[in-house]
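Supplementary Text 2. Reproducibility record for the structural model of the 159-residue chain.

All settings were left at their defaults, and a single model was retained for analysis rather than an ensemble. We include the record here because the model underlies the residue-level annotations in Supplementary Table 4.
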Amino acid sequence: PTMQHSTALALSLAALLPATLAPAAADAREVSLSTTLNNYGGEGAYLAIYVTDAAGAYQGTLWLAGGKSKWWPHLADWHRATGGAVPDGVTGASVGAGRTLDVTVDLADALFDAGYQIRIDSSVEDMGDAPADVVAELTSAGAGKPVPGNGYVQSLTYR
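Retained model, structure tokens:
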């Protein structure tokens, strides 16, 4: 089963980058993120999918699965970096066990092969939290190769 969100996000990470890295809109690519959850047998998972730079500093939120803000503090690394603030248009429903969330985003070309990472924090009610469930280096060579998760996420694949 798959949950698809084929909306290209209006939020461009280019706006969040230092001026020296901020490329023109033409220097971006559409990237599909496919996050598959393990069949852990619990409630739907909350997921924060976001980008960090080479030093691990937060750069921007790509997608937040789970709309009830009272659970966002359980997405610990993401919540600490953002204070729980979510840009408009990047939220959706929580993701059920064994399901796949597909999201399409626009990412600046400058983010690839430059030390940036896609990270996923996850949490399931009454089952615990998994900060840094997935940490995937954003590289051209890594496209299409599943990156395993350490908690509720089985894998993240970007194309």
